[in-house]
Amino acid sequence: MLRVLSQIRSESCFALKGGTAINFFIRDVPRLSVDIDLTYVPPLDSRETALRNIGDALARITEALKIRLPTVRGATSHREGVHSNTSGPNQIGA
Length: 94
Description:
The chain is an alpha+beta fold. The chain is built from three helices and six strands; from the N terminus they run αβαβαββββ.
């Protein structure tokens, strides 16, 4: 997961948040689940622009991870222009 996080870091439009972020970087508390929670940080974008930028950034992350981690499969699903996670074992959602 840390290799995935390092690739996400290359996209400045996202900020990592939530319990996994705290656990990896501040405290070492046992967790039942681990996920990646991101916030889109540019606050002045229109909804349409934000969704397009998020989709583009997630696509770049997915493509880079396919190269860096060839055993990881990327999956993309679209619903009303919103990218939703369709993750499973060894799978990244974009």
